[in-house]
Amino acid sequence: MLDKNITKIIDKVKKINDSCDFCVHEIKLKKKKVIYMYYSSTANDDKISDYLGKSLSLDYKEQKKIDNVFEYLKMTIPNSKLKIIKTYDEIFYYLSCGYTIVLVDGDNKGIAIETKAKLDRSITESTSEPNLKGPKDSFTENYESNIGLIRKRIKDYNLIFNEVNVGRRTKTKVSLIYIKDIASTEKVELLQNKLKNIDIDGIIDSNYIKELLSCGQASFLPRVVSTERPDNVSISLLNGKIAILVENSPFVLLLPSVFADFFKTSEDDYIKPFNATTTRIIRYIAFFIAILIPAFYIAVMTYNMEVLPDLLLTSFAIERESVPFPTVIEVLIMITAYEILKEADTRKPQIMGASISIVGALVLGDAAVTAGIISPIVVIVISLSAVSGMAFSSPDLVNAIRTWRLLFILSACMFGLVGIISLFLVFIAKASSLEVLGVPYFTPLAPFIKKDIKASIVKQKQNKIKNRDSYLTNNLKRIGDGK
């Protein structure tokens, strides 16, 4: 509890955290000391003046009408986000959140007024998930704005934002978002318990939550979709999924996520079914090309030459005639060079433009082939694998592709096509054994759900999608029967 003597309160606050941006102001109201304090780095001076100016600047006659100073301030301060605080922990929490704390001498309670300064960027177009059709807005680091972007799309009283504070020191707001009469109650309760049981110093981004919800299942496959698109979150909520919104993070987590979810984009809902289906199939093909084609090339050039037609094999052999390295070393050199260039391109300042890409793709590639370090066919193979891996917007899936590509290369290096087939079976077995909130990772393929399998690959017209996915919710009916 707070002390009734506000001088003691201020002394204790300064003793615990006397920061350079901590501001304290004292005035008299009906002969009582009133103190208001805030962090100048997180509070807005104009808001403080607007909310407190009129209530604290009364003349003598007006002050005489006041019976209780604390109750007077509570009733007259024009702020919808006014909080009554009773502990020192609450003082520090609300100060850090940009609130101004008002204390009245003789009262063991305080008033916290929302006076946040604008410390976030404006709503802009998504950079990680660009699209040609559909909405252009994206989430930002502003927690309230992100909630608003979802609410303006789903105007339903069943839309629930269940908020908890996670992190002993950061006390980060984490909101569990779902539509009450659509989402599975069991899955909501399971996620709520998981969030409440997180014990960590701080949560800085939604990726912390993603890792902490992994449940100890080790795998090289992503199991949580993260998106910065409000329309993607809204579509998922309407289908029965649960979203996790984290303060100060522009990425929202969607659960439960299955393998097929990483091959869908929100733009699929805005284009014609034939085009969306074709693009989705191309993504599946691109995934397997990205992880398998370098390994297949190593296998047929090292162990299983009989697989290739004689003419093609002769052509490959002529191209490799001057290359001093074994096929696997040649492939690893190219992949390493590609990964270095990709990392450099990602981390470079924007002002440098495309200089690194040009140097890597044109100068180094052409010079390596001319010098006989690598063969032209390897450049083609690795380029095809690399481009195929770029067909996905999810960084987690791209990282998984990189890992599995390397594993297949090592397997092909040791055992040829037999190694590739064996590792592919391990891949299927491992993925089939994974679960996300009790939902098998390969759903609706394994277990096979006939009515859901079509929707995971083929996009139907909106008026034909009568039901939601059965593995997400028991409230299946999505569209009415009409008149």
Q: Summary?
A:
The protein is an alpha+beta fold. It has helices at 6-16, 45-56, 60-64, 69-76, 88-96, 143-151, 185-196, 206-212, 230-238, 273-302, 310-319, 327-347, 355-370, 376-389, 395-415, 417-433, 450-457, and strands at residues 22-29, 32-39, 83-85, 99-104, 110-114, 159-166, 172-179, 225-227, 242-246, 252-255, 435-436, 439-440.
What's the arrangement of secondary structure elements?
Layout: H1 6-16, E1 22-29, E2 32-39, H2 45-56, H3 60-64, H4 69-76, E3 83-85, H5 88-96, E4 99-104, E5 110-114, H6 143-151, E6 159-166, E7 172-179, H7 185-196, H8 206-212, E8 225-227, H9 230-238, E9 242-246, E10 252-255, H10 273-302, H11 310-319, H12 327-347, H13 355-370, H14 376-389, H15 395-415, H16 417-433, E11 435-436, E12 439-440, H17 450-457
Antiparallel strand pairs: 1-2, 2-4, 3-5, 4-5, 6-7, 7-9, 8-10, 9-10, 11-12
Helix pairs in contact: 10-14, 10-15, 12-14, 15-16
